[in-house]
Each structure stands twice: as structure tokens, then as C-alpha cells.
Amino acid sequence: MDLSVLWFWIVAFLFVGYFVLDGFDFGVGMSLPFLGRDETDRRVLINTIGPVWDLNETWVIVAGASLFAAFPEWYATLFSGFYLALLLILLALIARGVSFEYRHQRPEAAWKRRFDWMIIVGSAVPALLWGVAFANIVQGVPLDADYNYIGSFFDLLNPYALLGGATTLLLFFTHGVVFVALKTEGDIRDRARALATRAGAITVVVAASFLVWTGFAFGSGWFWILAAVAAVALIGSWLANVRGAEGWAFVLMAVTIAAAVFALFASLFPDVMPASNDPANSLTIANASSTPYTLTVMTWTAVIFLPLILAYQGWTYWIFRKRVTRTHIEAAAH
């Protein structure tokens, strides 16, 4: 396989890792107003992701760095054209991270409430805008002959892109609520399952609409196969949650997100940034990639370090595998 094609799929894999892992972090953050009836509930919710959220977030750094090194033209066009959207994502991630670290520094309810809202907004904004960004990449944006984006921020807020944003927002929300059910016990677990059932039903409808629109407008053979996998996994996750099998529900949600992201990349291939105004201005794998030498060095680096990273992350999740309960939170407060 050509190294540039290989790295196209490695970048896809890295975004899959980010959306699967940080996706449920976003969902947990967005669930605070729905599941956090009191301070103890809110601490339970935050503690479900407390040991792993920052590790999950590093996937986007690796994905961005790999995109920069493997496809510098794609990176330049994407980050200059989508500058405001990506800046909003960055500010939201900063606000969320600060909130996790500072909300417990003072006992006042008003202090905690302000940081809780920063967590909620800092989770919802990236969950929405990542979908908007990827939907625009798939459908194409206006580019000039030098591959510069010549539209505006508001051009990115078109109906197809907003549907993509709603899809990722709902997918991550449901993914996070399922994770809460998997990581907690008692009343909050029951309420999380009930919320995941309601949210999951809406997610199925919205995600199906987005995938069908994408398939008929931009899809290829591989897209339909991967989209079908995503659809079956999403329905399976909803059914597993209804039956109380939170583990299977979580795994199938992860499969849903992974298959959906790979489907979007499959609909792009061999382009990386289609030009909606003139196909001749499109960025492709061939004209956006780095030199063969750079890709060779990157490949050996990935072969050595990627398995170590995956092993470390798996070990981290194993260490923090136990459920979080109100009893643990209340005991820690004394």
C-alpha cells in the first residue's frame, strides 16, 4: 500500500480513537443537568471520567500532529479555513479542563455551579462543531487554486453540516450516558439507562438521516458497508441498553462511532478536501501528502510507539474499572 494512503487511514484511526474516547467524556459532561440532582450526583458523574478524560483528550493532539506531518496541505487548508470553528473547540476544551480542576477548590454552591456550566458548554460545543467540521469536509468547501478556503464561517453552518453536528452531539451524549450507566450503581445508574433509552431513540433517527443523506450525495460502495455496520451497531446498542446490558451497549456505541467515522473517510477517498466550486482545486491524498521519506519515518515511529500507547491506555482503564457510587463520594467528603 502506498504510504500516503496508509497514513490517510491512520489519521482516520486516530480520529476514531478521539471520538470514541473523548466522545463519552463529552456525553458525561452534557449529562450533568439531566442526571446531577445534587452535588453528590454531580461528583459521581465527574468522577466516572476523572482518571481518564485528559488521556482521552490527547488523541486529538496526536491526530492533529499526524495530519500536520503526513498531509501538510490538508492541515493548512483545514486549520486556516475552519479557524474560528476550531478556535471555539479549543476554547471549549480549555474551559472544560479548567472546570474539572477548579470546581472543587471552594465549597460555595455558586462557585461549583459556574464551573458545572463550563463543563456542560465545554462538552456540548466540541460535540456539535466536530460534526459540523467533518460534514463540511465531506461535502466540500469552496477553495481557490492555491487550496485556500474562500468562504466564511457562516457558510459552514449549512443544513447538511448542522445535521452532521446534531448527529455527533447526540451520538456523544448517548455514548456518555451509557458510560455513566456502566460506571455507576443505584438510582443514578437506573436514571442513566432510562435517559440513554430516550436519547438513543432520537439518535437513531438523526444519525440515520445524516448517513442516508451522506450516502446518496457523496457515498461509495465502502461507505454503504460501513454505514450499515454503524446503523446495526447503533440499534444493537439501544436494545442492549434497554435490556440492562450496559457493557454491550457501550461497546456497540463505540463500534457505531468508529464505523461512522471510517464511513466518512471512505466517502472522501481519494480526496482529503474536496472543492465544491471547482473539482480541479480539490486536495487529494496525492497532492496533499508529505514526501515519501517523511512518511517512512512516521510509519516506523507509529509501529514502535502506537502499540505502547494503546497498551498504556488499556492498562489505565483496567486500573480504574470499578464503578463509582454515592457511598464512595460521601465517604470521601468526611
From TrEMBL:
Membrane topology (UniProt): Multi-pass membrane protein
Which compartment or compartments is the protein found in? Cell membrane
One GO MF annotation is: oxidoreductase activity, acting on diphenols and related substances as donors, oxygen as acceptor
The record's InterPro entries line, in alphabetical order, gives:
Cyt-d_oxidase_su2
What keywords sit in the KW lines?
Cell membrane, Electron transport, Heme, Iron, Membrane, Metal-binding, Transmembrane, Transmembrane helix, Transport
Q: Which GO terms describe its cellular component?
A: cytochrome complex; plasma membrane
Please give the Pfam families that the UniProt record associates with this protein.
Cyt_bd_oxida_II
In the record, biological process GO terms are: aerobic electron transport chain
What is the protein's major site of localization? membrane
Protein family: Belongs to the cytochrome ubiquinol oxidase subunit 2 family.
Please name the PANTHER family in this protein's record: CYTOCHROME BD-I UBIQUINOL OXIDASE SUBUNIT 2 (PTHR43141:SF5), CYTOCHROME BD2 SUBUNIT II (PTHR43141)
Q: What is this protein called?
A: Cytochrome d ubiquinol oxidase subunit II
Source organism lineage?
Bacteria, Bacillati, Actinomycetota, Actinomycetes, Micrococcales
